[in-house]
Amino acid sequence: MSLLAVSNLAKRYRRGGKPFAAVDDISFEIGPAETLALAGPSGSGKSTIAKLVLRLIEPDAGRIDFEGGDFLALSGAALRTRRARLQMVFQDPLAAFNPRATVARVLDDPLRIYNIASRAERPRRIAALLERVGLDTSLAARAIHEISGGQRQRVAIARAIATRPSLIVLDEAVSALDVSVRGQILELLLDLQRQERIAYLFISHDLGVIRAVAHRVVILDAGRIAESGDARAVIADPQSAVGKALVAATPKLVRTSQDAS
Amino acid sequence: MTVLLSIRDLVIAYRRDGIEVPALKGVSLEVLAGERLAIIGESGSGKSTLALAVAGLLARGARVGGTIGWLLPASAGAKAPLSVLPDISPSRGEIGNSGAGSLLATSKIGEGGDHSVISPLEGEMSGRTERGAKDRQPSALATSQPRLGRDIGFVFQDPSSSLDPVIPIGKQIAEVARTHLDLTWPDAYTKAKTLLERVHLPNPDATLRAYPHQLSGGQKQRVAIAAAIAAAPKLLIADEATSAIDTIVQAEIVALIRRLVAEDGMTLIFISHDIALATTLADRIAVLRHGELVELGEARQIIEAPRHAYTRALLDAHLGLDAKPLLDRQGASA
Amino acid sequence: MSRLHRFFRTPEAIAGALILALLVAMALAAPLLFPGDPQAIAGPALLPPFQDWSLPLGTDRLGRDVLAELFHGARTSLAVGLAAAAAALLIGAAVGTLAGFASGLLDEVLMRVTDAFQTVPSFLLALAFVSIVGPSLGVVVAAIALSAWTGPARVARAEVLSIRERDYVAGARIIGMHPLEIAFREVLPNALPPVLALSSVIVAAAILTEAALSFLGLGDPNRVTWGGMIAEGRTVLRTAPFLSIVPGVALVLTVLGVYLAGEGVVESTAVRRSLS
Ligand SMILES: Nc1ncnc2c1ncn2[C@@H]1O[C@H](COP(=O)(O)OP(=O)(O)OP(=O)(O)O)[C@@H](O)[C@H]1O
Ligand SMILES: Nc1ncnc2c1ncn2[C@@H]1O[C@H](COP(=O)(O)OP(=O)(O)OP(=O)(O)O)[C@@H](O)[C@H]1O
Ligand SMILES: [Mg+2]
Ligand SMILES: [Mg+2]
């Protein structure tokens, strides 16, 4: 049973008056606790798919089934309730939060909105969430712009898991981070996946990162699926032209004497 | 190989809300003429600070100590006759290699510096002048101190921030060529068109008339590179020039920089936080951490036999296509 | 560094704040220093200033105390200016936020209405409104607000339109926040600073409009206003120019003070923005 099933999804935009397909006839499935990566060059439609899946924008055609129900049929309060199970982490953690917010407020919002904890109990829950993502609980009082980029991305993950989702969409969530911080965040995501059985729709143009964390990959080109399959198999032997170009463009460390593997 | 640039004990601190924040803590480094040097390190390690100091672009209010010495060859595109500086700074001995036809200029900077040294950089580096980069240089010493645009080309991470949104691409590049090469406007435009061809922009004639917002991120970065190399600088500094664009375009830009540097015999300082990307381009790699230079060596040596634990950690954090997937390290999860 | 500290960094801001403080002090002190009716006769008519120290600024054509009138006039100017500006900002921000959020037909309608208001010169609008409804303080405030709300409405709408597209608004939707909460808790507070930046210009304009209406005899007849004082003095401009000059200078200083203080606020918040 798949957790998320997307079929024949399409979204058109206008460019210079002429309509063009940003997303065209896209179908894929994600199972529980699975990571599906979306790869592709800039403008290939990765973020558009993310927004469609989250119902931030509406598709022109296609169907989205989430947790066994027609996700596109939901609206209003029913949609807001269902959203607890489907969360997102953005690329730029500074832009992803209200500039006036504090860490505590950012984490308090989902707990309040979904009635997950009483007002009195929430500070404890917030502290627990911070600990879960490896942050010091004293950070709660800080403003969002007073913490580092890596800490901010952890807060974003803490907010995403606050509502106990079954799927998190990560749109270039680690692209802006330092390699060392990136490694820690990826470890955290994998740890959450193992313990809470969260599935990820993992968007990135970096095949190295995808290969490290994803089970399967879908490679996009100009809004269409160029190829898909087991992440390591596809990256080891890409069949499509974009797949080959992406692999060729990924910087390689040629280590001979002190090889890691 | 001759030394182009000699940095000695460079200390830079920014003042933020009344507190001094150290950004560089005594970095010494020589850049050889014609080499490709990569500077890597995590965010906040001081990479950009070093690059800005070399280009004389540091923010006002930055406190600077140490010296940055230049050894510009006589052919550095200078128009005025060369002059020999009356007093050569104490660091001459350290640089040693000042062969004939070369000119040594050293800026001695910092509080209590030797004021008998003529050092036009002093004022600007300690942030006491407010003027723009172009007119920062006193004209009398124009031949001895490198000038941004003419002797140093600088490419920033975000091309939108270095291009003026309301001026056509062609005019922006022609402006650089006109200012630094003493060209007339028509000649400068011809030069701009050649430059757009060199950076492989499709349809250069149309691009000359285009505005920045009409180009993609990768195309804008090509334009920024064209503007940076317009006056055939000796030194090209690229600060995270490919970090904001996708891998395919990144590979194209890196290939472009490599070709341009080879064709023009430029020296390259390439700043990146991606160690793998740095090794695809650089002869030597300098590793910065918390404002200190922890390791400097041949690119091969750095990746095959890193001497410092931090360099090794950076290498291990790299997720290449041959790395062991994190998924496996943690055990199967799906 | 506190916002206040930053505000007082520029000499313009300090000058503006001083003028405004003086004005507020005058307005507050008026009923204490001059408890009687400022429109009552206090001495001989047309007494020049600095002659009699119980009437330091002299008297007008009807023998009223100019200093008392000046103090009570500050009250009217300030009250009308602030109330009208507050009303204009409130209407403008509400209409702009609504239009920015609604988009589509409602946006179209609201913006056409805004256009309609903007094409009529604002002073004529206020003039027409007061002539129809009749002069009283409330009507003057309403008239000025009516002629000044379009600027804030446009700025608020533009701001809301740009903030609406930010990631954090999408983030708020994803955590299931109600659209109204998103509009008023997440978007509006961040859209307000540029709208509030207009307030100094609006307050200054409101004070001038009020003075102009009073000058034309369309102010509240039961209150002393600087515009009314200037109009009064005009008839004896040659023999007693001080009767027009004194309220005129007060008016210019007030508008200047409001403007300078406003600039100071904008400046101090701008620094704040670029820092974050
Ligand atoms: N609101 C919009 N209006 C018009 N065109 C749009 C809009 N949003 C996206 N597009 C276009 O749709 C295409 C796909 O965009 P999308 O953001 O999904 O790409 P992406 O794969 O996420 O790229 P990147 O790696 O640069 O983030 C692009 O050509 C883009 O210009
Ligand atoms: N204008 C400035 N004012 C105050 N502090 C600054 C300024 N510019 C940089 N810093 C601080 O100096 C240190 C070094 O910054 P620098 O920009 O050189 O790092 P970097 O290695 O280029 O990082 P990144 O990879 O994020 O670009 C950091 O701690 C930074 O916060
Ligand atoms: Mg995207
Ligand atoms: Mg930098």
Sum up the structure in keywords.
heterotrimer, A: 261 residues, alpha/beta, Rossmann fold, 2 domains, 6-stranded mixed sheet, 4-stranded antiparallel sheet, 10 strands, 25% strand, globular, disordered C terminus, B: 334 residues, 13 helices, 34% helix, 24% strand, binds adenosine-5'-triphosphate, binds magnesium ion
Can you characterise this structure?
The complex is a heterotrimer of chains A (261), B (334) and C (276). Chain A has helices at 46-53, 76-82, 103-113, 122-132, 149-162, 179-196, 207-213, 231-236, 241-249; strands spanning 4-15, 18-30, 35-39, 61-66, 69-70, 86-89, 167-171, 199-203, 216-221, 224-230. With 261 residues, chain A is α/β, with parallel strands linked by helices. Chain B is α/β, with parallel strands linked by helices and 334 residues long. Chain B has a single domain (3-107, 116-151, 233-326), classed as 3-Layer(aba) Sandwich (Rossmann fold), CATH 3.40.50. In chain B, 34% of the residues lie in helices and 24% in strands. Chain B contains 13 helices and ten strands. Chain B is globular. The model of chain B is unreliable at 75-105 and 107-143 (pLDDT under 50). By secondary structure, chain C is an all-alpha fold. Helices cover 75% and strands 0% of the residues of chain C. Chain C has twelve helices and no strands. Chain C has helices at 3-7, 11-33, 66-102, 104-119, 122-133, 137-148, 150-164, 167-174, 179-196, 199-215, 226-234, 242-275. The longest helix of chain C is centred in the N-terminal third of the chain and has 37 residues, at 66-102. Chain C starts with a helix and ends with a helix. At the A-B interface, helix 6, helix 7 and helix 9 of A face helix 9, helix 10 and helix 12 of B. One adenosine-5'-triphosphate (ATP) binds at residues 13, 22, 40, 42-48, 205 of chain A. Residues 13, 22, 40, 42-48, 205 of chain A line the site of one adenosine-5'-triphosphate (ATP).
Q: So how many helices of chain C?
A: 12
The overall pLDDT average of chain C reads 86
Q: CATH class of chain C, please?
A: Mainly Alpha
What is the CA-based Rg of chain C, rounded? Answer: 22 Å
Oligomer: heterotrimer
CATH architectural group of chain C: Orthogonal Bundle
Instruction: Tell me the name of the CATH homologous superfamily of the largest domain in chain A.
Output: P-loop containing nucleotide triphosphate hydrolases
Overall residue-averaged pLDDT value of chain A: 92
Q: Strand percentage of chain A, roughly? A: 15-25%
User: What is the share of helical residues of chain C?
Assistant: over 70%
Unreliable residue runs of chain A:
257-261
What name does the CATH topology of the largest domain in chain A carry?
Answer: Rossmann fold
Number of helices of chain A: 9
Taking the sheet with the most strands of chain A, its summary is:
6 strands, mixed
> Distance between termini of chain A?
36 Å
CATH architecture of the largest domain in chain A: 3-Layer(aba) Sandwich
Number of domains of chain A: 2
